[in-house]
Design a protein that fits this description.
Layout lengths: L4 H4 L15 H29 L4 H24 L12 E3 L4 H11 L1 H20 L10 H23 L11 H20 L8 H15 L28 H30 L5 H20 L5 E3 L1 H10 L4 H16 L1 H7 L4 H26 L3 H17 L11 H7 L3 H15 L7
Antiparallel strand pairs: 1-2
Helix pairs in contact: 2-3, 2-4, 2-12, 3-10, 3-12, 4-5, 4-9, 5-9, 5-10, 6-9, 6-14, 6-15, 6-17, 7-8, 7-14, 8-14, 9-10, 9-11, 11-14, 12-13, 15-17
């Protein structure tokens, strides 16, 4: 099908199309918005895991730079594909919180080198699963994907609430200042979305972040100490940690890679359903999974943690409908710059958690609504209602009472006790396999 003049010529109208050209300078704010929405969440897992594994502050700083570069590379591959890697969709990549609990279990037990070895193996396995998705994709029925997307949205609500209150572990968690910052940011997002005209309306999150940041500066909530002594240029090192292939670590991490693969399927399905108005194709699912896995293995070769699709950016897509790949690519470029030039990344890292929480709380709610819309699109048959109701009630309910998993081995607790997405996926898969397809009759 030939492209229209609007698609071949650079136009701001093309921000709502996958492939149309957009003026570069005008597209940068939309890309920056995606980076700011995920930036803190991209580096927080590094800080938590390196602390648990006893790595130095210098090592942590180096891995944060590597994480930004890998996130930029992964996003570019998802946008434009390399061989069979990538979905050719506006999927933004970053370090996932999904792996934090298992790494905090594996790292202190067998060392950070065992984490790296397990990520290399786990990434290859997920990559192969992606490349051969056509042979097993059938067991993930649309109702299963819909339940997983809904679970992802619900699981992120507490993440947004924690950010709104100042971030987990913050000395002033839940303080009046954080409430004020989060509320001002949220109100700024809403007002901009209501009163802005045309394409500017889709920059409501960026506007809220800027307003919140300025208010935070006047309140003394922005810590600029991280800018002192920052190097001009920093490049990642190959194999800064010699991989150790511990079978216990590998089994633990591979299980979480399967959970991460489920989230990636959910993210891809949510994005195509909500923004593009269609089901994700087999090629798109295969490419997104293969990119997740093999780029994660590449990331581990540079000493970093796995790279995976970011659900919060799917929520941003659902809010703005800005899906243009070239526009999102400017965000990937910003991530690469932030990784190569540490000062740039250090400035972005000063964004207060409460400001981020004020914006993300609405984005995460959009993912919940996307999941519910997908369930509705599957049809409210008795079979679908039973699968959705039981998987969500077990997954969301059981993981709110993690002590009930105490009878299971530590590995099972690490994977399932507080991971509602994993439990919902397992329950939905089992229900989908055992319930007769002709149960309506």
């Amino acid at each position: 099908m030939p492209k229209t003049k609007n698609q071949t010529d650079a136009s701001m109208d093309n921000i709502y199309t996958l492939d149309g050209k957009v003026p570069l300078l005008k597209s940068i704010p939309f890309g920056l918005q995606h980076v700011l929405a995920m930036f803190v969440a991209n580096i927080a897992p590094i800080m938590i895991v390196t602390g648990a594994c006893g790595l130095s502050t210098q090592e942590m700083a180096s891995l944060i730079q590597t994480a930004m570069i890998m996130a930029g590379i992964g996003t570019m591959v998802q946008l434009f594909t390399v061989w069979k890697l990538g979905a050719k969709l506006p999927i933004v990549m970053g370090i996932s919180f999904t792996f934090v609990s298992v790494f905090c279990y594996v790292g202190p037990q067998w060392g950070y080198e065992a984490v790296i070895g397990a990520v290399i193996v786990g990434g290859i396995i997920e990559g192969l699963l992606g490349l051969f998705a056509k042979y097993w994709r059938g067991i993930i029925a649309p109702i299963v994907s819909a339940c997983v997307v809904t679970a992802i949205g619900f699981s992120l609500l507490s993440v947004g609430a924690n950010s709104f209150a100042g971030g987990v572990g913050a000395a002033d968690f839940g303080s009046a200042q954080n409430w004020i910052l989060g509320t001002i940011t949220l109100v700024a997002c809403i007002l901009f979305n209501v009163f802005a005209k045309g394409h500017l309306k889709q920059l409501s999150v960026l506007f809220g972040l800027v307003v919140g940041y300025i208010v935070a500066l006047f309140m003394g909530k922005v810590d600029l100490s991280s800018l002192e002594g920052v190097a001009l240029i920093s490049l990642p090192q190959i194999l800064p940690y010699k991989p150790v292939f511990n079978i216990n670590a590998i089994v633990s991490v591979v299980m979480i890679f399967l959970v991460s693969a489920t989230e990636t399927i959910g993210d891809t399905s949510a994005m195509t359903n909500t923004v593009l108005g269609r089901e994700a194709t087999e090629r798109e699912i295969s490419g997104s999974l293969a990119c997740d896995g093999l780029i994660s293995s590449l990331s581990a070769c540079f000493g970093c943690m796995p790279i995976t699709s970011f659900s919060q950016n799917v929520g941003l897509l659902a809010m703005t409908k800005v899906v243009n790949r070239y526009t999102i690519a400017t965000g990937a470029g910003i991530l690469l710059l932030a990784g190569v030039f540490p000062a740039f990344g250090a400035v972005l890292a000063t964004l207060p958690e409460a400001v981020l929480g004020g914006c993300t709380i609405m984005m995460f709610g959009n993912i919940v609504i996307s999941g519910l819309q997908m369930i509705g699109a599957c049809g409210f048959t008795q079979r679908n209602i039973t699968i959705a109701a039981l998987s969500l009630s077990i997954g969301l309910g059981f993981t709110q009472v993690p002590d009930m998993f105490n009878i299971f081995p530590a590995l099972v607790r690490t994977i399932f006790a507080e991971n509602c997405v994993a439990v919902v996926f397992l329950a939905a898969i089992i229900m989908n396999l055992i319930m007769p397809k002709d149960s309506e009759a």
